[in-house]
Structures are given as C-alpha cells and as structure tokens.
Amino acid sequence: MLTTPPHLYIRRPSPTTAEFTVTTCPPLTIPLRLALLALLTLRITVVLSVIIALYAQFASPPPPPPPNRTTTTTILSHLSTASLLDALLALQTSPPGQSITRLASALPASVLALACAGLLYAGLLLRLHTTESVLVLRGLGIQIQTSSHTAGAGGSARFIPTAKIQDVLINEAFKGFEVRYYLVVVVEGEEDVVVVFPRLLPGRRIVEAVWRGVRGCLYEPGEGGRKDGGVER
Amino acid sequence: MAPPPPSPPSPPSSTPTYNIAMVSDFFFPQPGGVESHIYQLSTKLMDRGHKVIIITHSYEDRTGVRYLTNGLKVYYVPFMVLYRSATFPSVFSFFPVFRNIVLREKIDIVHGHASLSSLCHEAILHARTMGLRTVFTDHSLFGFADAASIMTNKLLKFTLSDVDHVICVSHTCKENTVLRASLDPLMVSVIPNAVVAENFKPPSNPAETSRGHAFGQPAPPARQLGPHDTITIVVISRLFYNKGTDLLTAAIPRILENHPNTRFIIAGSGPKAIDLEQMIEQNVLQDRVEMLGPIRHEEVRDVMVRGHIYLHPSLTEAFGTVIVEAASCGLYVVCTQVGGIPEVLPSHMTVFAKPEEEDLVAATGKAIAALRANKVRTELFHEQVKSMYSWTNVALRTERVYNGISGAISDAEFYGYDASLNAANWSATRGRSGVQSFALIDRLKRYYGCGIWAGKLFCLCVIIDYLIFLCLEILFPRDKIDTCRDWPRKTLNEEKEPGVR
C-alpha cells in the first residue's frame, strides 16, 4: 500500500527540457499521508525503544533517582545531559519501558546488539521509496539521478554533456533469474555504458516511453532522432 | 464511439506460424555441424514466417542477448562450463531463466538439438512441465556397450520419455535413437541435413561463367583426365579415432604405392595427427602427402576443389554432411559403409568400402581407375546435389512436424494411419489427438517406465520440477514479465520458392 510498482512521471517545464522520473512512491493522497505519518510515529517509537533497551542493558545498574532535587528549571537545563538521562530513566521506569527492559535483560548481549543495530537501521536510515530520474536539456546534455538506499545520503547524480553522448538505446540483459529491458546511454570514450534507472529497472513500457521522450527532446525534431545529427550539432 | 482498433495483420497464408525456441549447448561462435544446422534451419523457418529464437549458454566473450543479422535472436545464458563447452548439468537452476525467456518470447514449441547437450535435455523437461510442445533432433550415433554410452542413453531415455516428436538426420540414426531411448518409431521422423550448395561450387571454368548460368542450359563440359595426370585425394576431417584416422594412416602408403600419379591433401587437426606425421616420415611421402592442419569452415571449399577424390574413412557417422559438400564441389567420393552414410549420396557419386584397410585401398583403386577412364561425370554432381539437398526443404519438413505435434494436421495425415481405428496402438505415451498429454500423472507414468531405479528417480525429478514451477508462478507471476517485441516477420510467399519440392 505504501509503495507501488515503478511508475513514470514526465515533467516538461519548457519545450527543450524534460524530466522523466520513475518512482515507487504512489500519489500523495490523504490516506497515504496519514499512513506515512503513522509510519513515522512507529519509527520514532522503535528508535526510542532501542535506546531504552540499550540504556537498560549497558548502562546498568540504573542509579536510584535522587529523592528531593531542588529543581529550578529553565529551558536550557532541560537540554542538559543530566536531565536527558532523567527523562530516559523516567521512560524506562514507565510500564512499557519496564517490559522492554525485561526483554532486553532476557536476551544475550550479542543478540541484543545485533537486533538493536538492525532496528536502528530500519528506523533511522532505511528509505521507503526509490526515485530515479533523468533530466534532458537540449543542447546541454542528460542528467541521471538516483536516490540512495538510506536517508541522509543524497543519492548520486551524473551529468553527460551532449557532445559526449553517442547514443541512447534500449537493451536486454540477464539480471538474476530474469531477462530485463534497460535504457542505456553510450558515452564517448568510456568502456561501459551508463544505465538509466539502474536500481528500479522499470518494465518495457516505461523504458520505451522514456527512450522516445529522451530522443525526442535531446535531438531536434527535424533530424528524426538521427544520432549523427544530434551529436555533431 | 471510437472505431475499434485495427486488428494486427494476420499472415496471409493459412498455415499456422509458431514461436520456436531452439535450445542447444552448441551454437556459434563455436564452429561445428550442429551449430550450422541450427542456424540454417532457423533462418529458413524464419523465411517461412515463424519466429525463432536460440537459447544457448554463454561463451567467454559472449553473454546476454544478441541479434544476428537476419533478426535471429540468441540468448547466451550465463552458466558454468564443464568441459568443451558442455555445461554442468544444473538440472533445476536453469528453470527460472528458461521460464522467463519462454514467457517473454511467447514460445509455443521448444526444439532441442544434440543428445550430448544437457541444456537441451533440461529445456525439454522444463518445457513439458510448462505445457509446451517439444521436439528433439538427434545428430549423432552412439554405442550401447561402454559406460559413457549407457549413461548418455539413460539420460536420453529420461528426456525422450516425454517429448512430442523426435527428428533424426538419417534412417540409421533413427534406428539407433529408437533403440537407445525405447521410442515408438512412429514418433521419430527422418529429416536429413542439407548443404548450402552455393558455398560448395566446383571450380568454375571461364567459358561457363561468361555464358552465365541459365535454366535449360546444356550440361557443363566433362573434365577430361589424361592417363598420367595427377589425381589428388582430399581428406578433411577431425583426426580422431572415430573418424577413422588409423584406417587412413594404414591405407595411405599402400594407395600411393599402387597408384603412381596420386597425391593426398589432409586437412584437420586432432590427437591422431601425430600418427599421420609419423607415417609420412617413415615412408618418406612428404612430397605426396600435404598436411594442412586445422582449417575454417569457409576454407573447406577451397581445399576441396583442389582434388578429384574425397576419401572419408569414418568409423561411425550419423549423416556425414562433409561428403555431401565434397560431392557438391564435384569430387568423386570414396567412403566407408557405416552409419547413415549409405543413405546420403546416390551410388553413382560414391564408391563404398568396408571399414577395413584392405577394402579401403581396393575401393580407392576402383575410384582412381574410374576417374582415369573418364567414366564418372563429376561435373554434374553439383547440380544434382543442389536439387537433392536444400535447407528450405528441411525447414518445410520440420514445419510439418510442428504442425503434426500441435494438432494442425490430423493424426492420420501425420503418422500415416488413423489412431482411432487402431485402438490396440493406444498407450500411455499418446493422448487423444496423437500428441502427448500434459497431465502430471500421465507424465509420471511415462517416466516410471524408464527402469527399476531410474524410473523412480526420474519421477522424483519431474515432481521437483513441477513444484519449482509452482513456486516460480508465485514468485515471478506471469503478468509481471515483459513480453518482447517481435522482429518483423516475413510472410511466406510460395511463388518465390520454386526450389521447394
């Protein structure tokens, strides 16, 4: 529900520019937004539980709370390490926190560490949707963008100037147990071709639509997409 | 209301066209007889409006999907190569890729080639599991006695227990295959190989080429041979034991001794080359025996036209394409009477010998004498071979097999008798329409009859294969697999093919 099979968006800000985006993210409707919000809450909970579990396991024994602390609270003091630790302790002593503590103490330390690492990766870093795009600017070139697996990292982008583009074509290759179609840019002076949409590898319909679009936008319409005319210009 | 979209143009001829996958371990860039058979047959089938793809394993520098110049699509599936480009029997690991290819290309008929190719056997097994029609072409003869043959025969029996039709290249080969795999002879057809006669033309004399080559033109003038002209005997073969190189080694000194104005040209390489060289050294025949070493297939014609007699001492041969090529080049053929060779050429082109030294020397002597007496019209051989062997004809006959197994022509027409009248001939192997049933239980019945232990083992394999098939249907659903665009099909034009007999 949260992701879809790869589908194509085409944006044409000007007659000489086109952006083809292939993404697994469905259109943002209200239910989807709510679901994403719920997912965010779930992720925060998971991360918090992991922190509690780690704290309970590796920072034990928890010091008993000081009986009567004179608290002159400012906003700044809320952000101090001591008060953060206090908050953590409060969370830990709450009923759900205690059950997490019990679970953490039941597991061996190595298993706990591995589980925590996995959960942290899923909660903090994993990106739900993959988006890949190719931006075509007539007379300038093609920019190929790919989002990264993890949040935080910005993904990669590659710009290929028109003079370097020898051809844009569709090919077939074995990938795992399948034969897939893929769109490639043949770059002058490079041993390997550049694959467009390398992670999603969308199906034939999308690849063909993008191929037509890229060739139509990159080369003048009068030239009928002939590669020589397009490159020499 | 929008007008209904125009329906895709259907082929004008009434004969159905098929999507055919040729599967074999042996294909170009590797040279060989099976390879060129597959290529020629595919090309001619495409000319008849069918869609043909080829599935083979990858070679060092060739992996992935390639198109040959005429639109023939070749899948070089990456695999581990075991020995001499035969793949490791990876029985089930090939299935996912195979299923993907079959679905995306919308294949109806899987046609396997060569009994030593494990890829072909696997493909036939998987294709039957997927409910496709299968054809197998056998290109070679095998013994029954030694361990390797027994293993191969068992494997062959496994595959051929559940195949729709088998094609053999000669009647001897058919006999051999029927015995090895315990088949019903009715489901085995004989379709010989062919040669591209244009590639094997005899040496042209200038007068003829200037006149041009028209129909009804008088036969080319006879090549007159004087009593003291040198007669050249050509041998082109891989120098292996089964090709009769030992026989050749023994016969050459005696032939040269008996017939002064003769010489030999030997092309080819192999483990027995050293024996030939020793023989030449011992008898000091360097100036009368020329060893050319390995030559490419394109050069075969140029070597052949240098000679007058082609000597083929092979000990076993399913068909022997090379003697057809030799005859097409206008050579008088001396060959051993083994395997399918006696079926290949008419008797006026050949002198047969038993596979013994004595007889081979005598037969060669007879051939030399006949040539010296100018009794053999070798210059006519080319046109005769051309009219006997053509790939178009092979494709036509193969197409008939496809029609037969897919039910496009009736049983009575295909098998030559009416199955419904012959209820006694009904067996588990043959279903209602004379084609094999796809039901798993019927398939298991057929495999179970293969042997006490082998039958059970084969059944196990088939069941596992079926389970894998079900898993694949769930893991890689059919509707998620992209279908390919077809290469523009040719439409069959009967008027354009006057050579079809």
TrEMBL record, chain A:
Residues 133-198 form the Phosphatidylinositol N-acetylglucosaminyltransferase subunit H conserved domain. Belongs to the PIGH family. GO terms for cellular component: glycosylphosphatidylinositol-N-acetylglucosaminyltransferase (GPI-GnT) complex. GO terms for molecular function: transferase activity. This is GPI-GlcNAc transferase complex, PIG-H component-domain-containing protein. GO terms for biological process: GPI anchor biosynthetic process. Pathway: Glycolipid biosynthesis; glycosylphosphatidylinositol-anchor biosynthesis. It comes from the Eukaryota. Keywords: Membrane, Transferase, Transmembrane, Transmembrane helix. The chain crosses the membrane at residues 34-55, 103-126.
UniProtKB/TrEMBL annotation, chain B:
It holds the Pfam family PIGA. The chain crosses the membrane at residues 453-476. Residues 57-146 form the PIGA GPI anchor biosynthesis domain. One of its GO terms (cellular component) is glycosylphosphatidylinositol-N-acetylglucosaminyltransferase (GPI-GnT) complex. It is an enzyme of class 2 (transferase). Keywords: Glycosyltransferase, GPI-anchor biosynthesis, Membrane, Transferase, Transmembrane, Transmembrane helix. Residues 227-364 form the Glycosyl transferase family domain. One of its GO terms (biological process) is GPI anchor biosynthetic process. The keyword Ribonucleoprotein does not apply. Pathway: Glycolipid biosynthesis; glycosylphosphatidylinositol-anchor biosynthesis. Signal peptide: none annotated. It comes from the Eukaryota. Its EC number is 2.4.1.198. One of its GO terms (molecular function) is phosphatidylinositol N-acetylglucosaminyltransferase activity. Catalytic subunit in the complex catalyzing the transfer of N-acetylglucosamine from UDP-N-acetylglucosamine to phosphatidylinositol, the first step of GPI biosynthesis. This is Phosphatidylinositol N-acetylglucosaminyltransferase GPI3 subunit.
